Amino acid sequence: MKAHTLRFRMIVLFCSVVAGLLAVSYLAFWALLAREVGAQLNRQLLETARPIIADLISEPAVEDVNNLNIPDEFFALLDPSGHVLQRSKNLSTSLDLNLMGINLGIAEPTFGVGRLGDGRHVRMALIPFQQVGQPRVLAVAARTAHFGSALENFGSVALLIFPLSLLLTAGISTFYVGKSLAPITALTHHAALMAKRVTSREGFWTPLPVSNRRDELSLLAQTINQLLERVDSSVRPLRQFVTDASHELRTPLSVLQGETQLLLSKPRSAEEYRKTLCEFDDEFKKLTHIVEGLFTLSVADAGQLRLNCEPLYLDEVLEEACALVKARAGTKNIALIRELKSDIPYFGDEAFLRQLFLIFLDNAIKYSGSDKWIRVSLEEDEQFIRVRFEDQGIGISSEDLPLIFERFYRAARSSNENAHQSGGLGLAIARAIVEVQGGSIECQSTPGIGSIFTVTLPAISAPVAASA
What we know:
It is built from 7 helices and 14 strands. The protein is an alpha+beta fold. It has 3 domains: 6-148, Beta-Lactamase; 216-301, Helix Hairpins (Orthogonal Bundle), CATH 1.10.287; 310-458, Heat Shock Protein 90, CATH 3.30.565.10. Strands 2-1-5-4-3 form a 5-stranded antiparallel beta sheet. It has a 5-stranded mixed beta sheet with strand order 7-9-10-14-13, covered by helices on one side. A two-stranded antiparallel ribbon has the order 6-8.
């Protein structure tokens, strides 16, 4: 059975159950029919005996039973010892009462099966009554040919209907099971097509067919659709992330390889070695920055980004971050305008908060021209603390704005400049840090004018290490 298809097993199971139910139903109906026919025959025997008993009681001297000669009906008047006092003309021998297995000393009419002297079985009723103060029993018997023929006819009809019913059931079940399993077949075919397209860069997911939104199969199809949609939405960014990460890592690795080959091509002076090692150091720092960023994001994705929370003043952390980028801003003559509310207590991870602020400050300096300003403000209310970074940089278009927090996202810098790296890993790491501390980031930007990044943190943070 295990080697057969689900369709075949369902049909066999359905037909087996129906066959069992039909067999039980026919047997139960046959038993009820036999009981009802027997009860009807018993009533008929009582109705036949009633006027005869009345005559025997009213005229005890008249031998009414001896004068009876009704086809297929037999009568005998017995005393309690079983001696035949009278018998009908068509009863040549006495009735055999052994099959009934009863004593004639009865008080109520008794029914059972008897036998004539020639061996024929009859349905018999033994009816007790009093005749001139003497107990008597009238035995009334009738042949059961009609009774047996009715049951035989029913059995013949049942034997004919039973296989026809099974054939009809098999046909209906084949049609119904086939129609019921059609959606599963369609789901299987559709899933096989998606399996072939799973390596496609354009995505593999297309909705599975949903025929009826109220049955279990349609619910299964909808659930699989939701699963595949989420898998596809996860696979696409992952594939793009791997592509972009490999591209970002390839650039410093190519520089290192080229400088190494150049350095080994011929003997160099000490100054040339020092200069090359400085270039190595810069590229290694880039690699370290990328790898650390990837590690931070992978930990955040796994929900394992832990915060070493401690009491601190948020304005002091922000002042420290501004001090770290002051020299870099000075090289481009960019003024750092700080509007910070003093002594704002917070409970968080100082290292992650400093890294968060440095990401926005570094981006603002990187994408701002010379002789510009960057305004950093810090304010709070009863529920939230808001840190705002406003610059006069190149700005971000409305099409790119929803995507700037994606990892290694690239956007067009402007209409007259080449493509550039818009976010790298910085904004993605910033979002992960803010989310793990229960906050959010908003960005407002106008191309050619500048951008405003607003970090919103809860004013009261639970004094426990949180995880994403």
